[in-house]
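Supplementary notes (optional reading)

For those who missed the lab, this is the record we used. Protein: Hexosyltransferase. Length: 530 residues.
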Amino acid sequence: TMVRRGFILFLPQLVGLLVVTCCSMSIVYMLACTPKGDNEQLALPRVHSPTVKEGYEAILQDQEEQHHNYIISLKKQIAQLKAELQGRTDQLKSMQNQYPHSLDIQLDHSKPEKAQANLLAFLRSQVDKAEVHTGVKLSTEYAAVPFESFTLQKVYQLETGLTRHPEEKPVRKDKRDELIEVIELAVGSLNKPDGVSKAKPRVYTASDFVEGIYRTEKNKGTLYELTFKGDAKHQFKKIVLFRPFGPVMKVRNENVNMADTLINVIVPLAKRASKFWQFMQNFREMGIQQDGRIHLTVVYFGKEQMNEVKSILENTSKSANFKNFTFIQLNEEFSRGKGLDVGARFWKGNNVVLFFCDVDIHFTAEFLNSCRLNTQPGKKVFYPVLFSQYNPSIIYGHHDSIPSLEKQLTIKKETGFWRDFGFGMTCQYRSDFINIGGFDLDIKGWGGEDVHLYRKYLHSNLMVIRTPVRGLFHLWHEKQCLDELTPEQYKMCMQSKAMNEGSHGQLGMLVFKQEIETHLHRYKLSNKKT
């Protein structure tokens, strides 16, 4: 009985234990068979599980949906690229319609070679639209884009910026690298075999570079014209390059033979015999002895001092064995435009380069070559910007003596300025001068005639080469503004007179000279007391 009674007491505990065990097994089974959440990696169904087929179908459906979304995204990107490409094509077609004379350009993106050729054609159309092959008509004298000139060492510039230096060794790396690249490309082009000549070609180097000019048209590109020494004396190689907002492109490679190109220097004159003597010293050295391909035409107004001028001419003719001069005498009031016009029309020989000059001008043999190289009949006229000398007595007032003229002719901001408002010194072929109509002979006296001629060229299809040159100087002389001038001419004369005397700093020292001396006197007294 005691055993039965103990078993009866233990039976509820055993049943409870069995219930707990069954519940635990149920919980373990549920945890093993329940699917994972979204953020957990899906477990593959067990082989013998009833959910195998549904599990694989769910996984495949999820992957297919991801691929479908990726394809939709790619299609959107392709559509955007097609729209952008169509926009660029429409823009190019619009440009072609705007410039009907430019090259026919069509982009074919299915053929890379053809697309590259079309791009090259587009860049060449930029050359055609720029003022490279021919001039364009301009409205005013201020519309012309000036060139800047350069050598291996220096750049001669009009837009001096903050430095205010008319010449400089390029300190800006972009400008220095740009010009070095252009010179190296030109040298490489010269040394490239032409495939025609069997003779051993000459090897060009940067030392053969003589000078270059360049200018940038903001909406087209940069034009470079570089001159190199040729194979013989008086022969040159000229390379024209153009950078159409991209790689530099060779436009021309031509031989330029200037051995027979004569320059007729025309000088209008009245009185001023002493200045003419100084001019002839320069003419004899640079024009006769160094250059030798030159003619001089003097158009003299009135008779006062005429015999002295003729005597200077005759003496030069005898001593230098020089016969290439013409003396024309006019019995009328001085008119610079009339004198130059008469001198130009008097020439009866072949087409010749005319250099309109004054007796207070000093030029070098290098400038005469620049005059030839930058003129071309029916295509180009040359308007150099000369360097105007300040009053030597102001510049060198603190020196013991004024240096010789040769030492005075240096291009520095302390010694002078680029005379960018003057258009009187110019080179052009006689045929272009006659075809343009010459000077306005109604203008009398000083000033105005040169601007009218300059405007005529700007309004034509001729290319106007406007650049500062290192070999052309205006020598200082005291300027007299006569009462007979019109108010406009008198104003121009006085402005020119003020510009000629000295720089702002030098003129300021003269204006405040008394204050400076007073301060110096007080300073000396205070030092003595201490």
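If you only remember one thing from this example: The chain has 15 helices and 16 strands.
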